[in-house]
Amino acid sequence: MLQVKDLSFRYGRHRVFQDFRLDVPEGQVCLITGINGVGKSTLLKLIAGVLRPQAGSINFPGLKGQDPRRKIGFISDSLSLYRSLTVGQAIRFHQDVWGVRTFDDNLIRHTKIERGQKVKSLSAGQRTIFHLSLILSTEPDILLIDEVIHSIDAYLRKLFLDHLIALISRRAVTIIMVNLNFYDVEHIVDRVILLRSGSVLVDEPIGELKSKVKKIVATHRPESLAVLSSTEFSGYSEFYVYPYEPGLAAGIEGNVVDLNLTEIISGFIGGEYAEQGIS
Amino acid sequence: MLNKEFRDTLKRLGECFFILVGVPLGYLWDQVIVKAGWDFWAIFKGVLAALVFVYAAYAGATIFWAEKRDQAFEYLFSLPVSRTRILASKILPRLGCLVVLYAGLTVLSKSPFFSSVGLMLVFIFLLAMFLSLVIDSVVIGFLAILLLFGLYYFTWPTFSFVAWKLHLIPSISHYATIMKFLSAVILLLPFGAAFWKVYSRLDARPMNLQMRAYYLVSLPSLLVVISLIMVFFGRYLDMMKKG
Questions:
Q1: Contacts of A173 (CB under 8 A, 6+ apart)
Q2: Which of A143, B74, B95, B140 has its CA 20 to 30 A from that of A166?
């Protein structure tokens, strides 16, 4: 369980969060998304203890009396590690800090990483897999994964996600991930949180979100429904609507299309950009 | 964590003392070409002594070098270790190395001059470490350390003078080592307090966004110290002129 209470944070004069609140129950896989600069990575860093809030608190009720970082695994978007160490030295350093002696070489062997290699010589994909291996060796209860999946090739991405799925099936791990590639993670996500200017714009379980966001292909704007964004084509338009209610859509002439997560988020983000005058 | 810092310490030591290789080369050059009759051991000891001072500054100034170079602050702060433990694991091997160097230097020199060298080395090391948070440039860092080290040579006679005026010591020349120690502490305090204030709250934000507290603590205190030194050092000089 993770509770973010009245969190405020700013970078210099730039306010990112003001009285932000969020609860994430144990074992939930949460996807945080939103347009660039909305505070997604900042939120993960605050939860990981890498940034310190100016006000408010982040509580871990299940981890009373111990440093919460002991139960958190954090992969930052910059894949921050001691790059001048060799892989072997980085493993020993990580083990020393956590006081663990186990490290499963299986994952890094798949990616042809040698223990004698310098961390800085690893590709972005290898470094992501290596970081995941380090984190998994400490058996975290909370995994924070910042936009790293999109930077790795299809094979490593599958490897990464397969390990996440195996972890989730083995025990109740809370996963909060920031992602811009929704296709790969759609099948493991329980909840989608869309941020907007440091606050929550949408917070829905993925099933409900899919039933509430639809695309209507029609010649006229559906006046009875709230339109997030629209795209005009010759002779017809596509309208992304939220919340979609079958009762309200009864009189609309056009096709109602189910959407996948990528299309749903595109609909929301398209609306955000449209509001800012960018289309 | 301590292992990594120990390795880093030895690397920095190697980088710094690599210059020593130049001494036998210079000696050979003198023997074969210049023939000025260099005293190898005298030059070696002189260069070694200078390098120990340079190393003290280098070890302090590069205390967060690995994190800055590797952009590893995010990783470091995500680890379940306190800031105190991080700092202790960084300071211990470096200070240990300085102690060994100081001991070696004292043995080599066989000179009473080296009795106060230890204090100066620790002073330079801590000063460089305290400044390392705000100063990234090696040149500016060394200049700042030189300036403050120069200030130290005004501070301790001033301290002796004030203590003598207050009848705490029988004469200005008494308890010089204690006065030097107190002066070093007084000069280190503003920077040490500023360092700790920032370091204990340090996070992965850009460094320049976190340094306001450093300047707010260190600069006014330093100004007060410098003003007091100017006032009392002037009086001390007047008294010395009058005999």
A1: A27, A140, A141, A142, A143, A167
A2: B74
pLDDT (tens digit per residue) in A5-62: 999 999 888 899 999 999 999 999 999 998 888 899 999 999 999 999 999 999 988 8
What pLDDT, on a 0 to 100 scale, did the predictor assign at position A16?
92
B70 in reach of chain A (CB within 8 A) = yes
Please count the structural domains in chain B: 2
pLDDT tens-digit profile of A162-180?
Answer: 888 888 888 889 999 997 7
Question: How far is CA B56 from each of CA A36, B23, B109, rounded to the nearest angstrom?
Answer: 45, 20, 18
Q: How far apart are CA A225 and CA A158, in angstroms?
A: 38
Chain A residues whose C-beta sits inside 8 Å of any chain B C-beta: 11-12, 45, 48-52, 67, 69-70, 72, 74, 76, 78, 80-85, 89, 92-93, 96-98, 120
What domains are there in chain A, each with its CATH number? 2-189 (3.40.50.300), 208-275 (no CATH)
How many Cβ atoms sit within 10 Å of the Cβ of residue B202?
A: 19
Q: Is this prediction's pTM over 0.90?
A: no
Both B139 and B30 in a single domain? Answer: no
Q: 10 Å Cβ neighbour count for A24?
A: 21
- Tell me which residue range forms the domain holding B178: 42-242
Give the pLDDT of residue A164.
Answer: 85
